[in-house]
Structures are given as structure tokens and as C-alpha cells.
């Protein structure tokens, strides 16, 4: 079959016309040099000289072995004697990885902005809570509570908020993994892609508590430093 196709292409009318023409018979433009004419002959089948070999591996492991063999063959040889190869799968993989990295960075940037805004809001809410409970702070101080006890009250409050938010976030993430995995499996045939490990869940909860206690630390210190006499006079 291959011999028949090559022979038919070499003896076709367009191949014969291209052999004796100084321009590309398909485009009607003159050739820039001899290399361009050779490419023109190859494009219409007038020249059957092999220019490349396509190798199809059965899996990624076989592909890596082929690349290792070619690299070992080219090692120590001059550039003219080396075998030039092109790994289409690796190129597509690198492009996909680069695209995913860009998307990941963008998502991380948005998440960082959201965390910063949330931390500021937590600090503001804690500060408002301190102002609203100034009289209560004065009562606690008057019955013998120390400054660090007052500070611990507000720190505990922010920790409880952070822990609750972390639990809700991790729970929602686990619930979202179920439909996401179903959709990915139906579209790409890949199962279990979206997954949240227990270690990551613990880290997320700890991070949530840390991000709430840091902005709440300053208002809690302000509450601890309030004078009990002035706090009791506050209405």
C-alpha cells in the first residue's frame, strides 16, 4: 500500500508540473531558494525522501525510555550528526502545567486578598465588641479580674470564631468534592481528582484560627488596658 501511494504521488500530474516549475504550483509564488523548492516537491509527493519518523510509544514509561536512548545516542556527537526529536506529549504537558500554574497563582492572589480583608473585618468587629462591652470590662476588673484575663476573654472569642469558620469551610470543601469528582469523572474519566486530606483539613483549621486571633490581638490588648473606673462610668 505504501509503495503504491508513493509511486502514484510521484507520477501524478501535479508532481510532474512541480518538478519543472520554478514556482510553487499550489500557491503560484516563486521559490526563495533550493530548500524552498525541495519543500514544495515534498508537499506534492514528487519527492519521497523520508524527512521524519513518527514513534508512538505504548505508555509514558516507554516514551521516557525512547528519549533516554536518543539522548544517549546524541551524547558526544556533533550537532550535524545528532538525531533531532520532538516530544509532542511533553510539550502539551508543559503548556498545560504552565497554564495551570498561572490559574493557581491568580486564585492564590484572590484568596490572599480575601484573607486580608477578612482579617481586617475581624479586627474591626472585635474592636466594636470591646467598645460595646466597656462597662462589662469595668465590672470584671472591679471584681478582681486581671488585665490578662480580660485579654484572654476576647482572644478566646476570636479563636472560637476561627474554629467555627474553619470547621464550616472544611465541611463545605468535603461536600463540594463529591459533585466535582462526579463531573470530572463523566467529562474526563478521572476519578478521585478533587480530594482534601485530613492533614490539609487540620492545617486549614489551624490557619483559620491563626488568622482570627492575629487581628483580634490588638483590640483585646486595648480592652485589657482600660481603666476600670472610667469603664464603669461608660453608658
In words, what does this structure look like?
- It contains 9 helices and no strands.
- With 235 residues, the protein is mainly α.
- Among the domains are: 1-51, no CATH class; 123-233, no CATH class.
- Helix 5 (88-132) runs parallel beside helix 8 and helix 7 packs antiparallel against helix 8 (198-224).
- The radius of gyration is 36 Å and the shape is rod-shaped.
- The chain starts with a helix and ends with a helix.
- The model has no long low-confidence stretch (mean pLDDT 80).
Fold topology:
Blueprint (H helix, E strand, L loop, with lengths): L1 H9 L2 H7 L14 H11 L15 H15 L13 H45 L1 H9 L4 H42 L9 H27 L3 H6 L2
Helix pairs in contact: 5-8, 7-8
Spatial extent as radius of gyration: 36 Å
Structural class: mainly alpha
Order of helices and strands: HHHHHHHHH
Please give the largest β-sheet. none
> Mean pLDDT, nearest integer?
80
Q: Which tags fit this structure?
A:
single chain, 235 residues, mainly alpha, 9 helices, 73% helix
Short description:
The protein has helices spanning 2-10, 13-19, 34-44, 60-74, 88-132, 134-142, 147-188, 198-224, 228-233. By secondary structure, it is mostly helical. Among the domains are: 1-51, no CATH class; 123-233, no CATH class.
